[in-house]
Amino acid sequence: MARAKQERAVRTRETILRAAAQIFDEYGFSGSSVSKIINQAGTTQGAMYFHFKSKEDLARAVMNEQASDLDLPERPAGLRQLIDLNLYLADELQGNVLLRAGVTLAVEQGQLGLRDFSPYEMWAEQFRAELEAARRAGELLDDVAIEELSQVLVAAYTGSQIMSHLRTGRADLPERIAQLWWFLLPGMATAPVVAELRAFLAEQGTEHGGMQAAGQGTKQAAGHGVMQGMRSA
């Protein structure tokens, strides 16, 4: 009986959390209310306040649990996996409401009276593990400072997704992330790795119709894109 009650409480909390993500995503923090979240969740005010003390507490939970639905790598594998992860997140931000709401709240939290850096630290740690694997594999230049680079990558990704959100509702985010990596790679990776991963980025770009493929074995380009301009870099 106690176990069933505990499982029911876990399900109720999850339902409220996801309802909050939907409401925050649709209305923003200031336009959201506890009553809207309760109605979306189909639960009671008592259940809501049993699990979360306030709307701010809910926002913090959405921020910190934004990655709950993601299929993240179990083990770090280096730069290729890090780029794969970045492109995967770009795709997920277009349709994963929990991730999208969590990212938006993390960016806007200063306006909410919150100051929680843990979502950024979580992603920096994920990126740092991949960079450390890249170093062990000999993919990185000798002077690359992994800790600092992981923070830079999170900041650059955050800025890219904000620009994409404002311009296209994140429709062009995969292309922007591919561009980001195209230009960052020469500053962190050895020449053979840069060539290999740029070819990979060119191939991935065709999946989004935003970049032309380069090199033997890549897919045919779909439309015109940014790769012609990027090849001069």
UniProtKB/TrEMBL annotation:
Quote the DNA-binding region ranges, renumbered to this chain: 33-52
Domain HTH tetR-type: from-to ranges: 10-70
The protein's matches in InterPro entries, at most eight in alphabetical order, are given as: ArpA-like, CprB_TetR_C, Homeodomain-like_sf, HTH-type_TetR-like_transc_reg, HTH_TetR, Tet_transcr_reg_TetR-rel_C_sf
Pfam families reported in the protein's UniProt record: TetR_C_45, TetR_N
Listed A to Z, the keywords are:
DNA-binding, Transcription, Transcription regulation
Protein name per its UniProtKB record: ScbR family autoregulator-binding transcription factor
Q: Which organism is it from?
A: Kitasatospora misakiensis
Lineage of origin:
Bacteria, Bacillati, Actinomycetota, Actinomycetes, Kitasatosporales
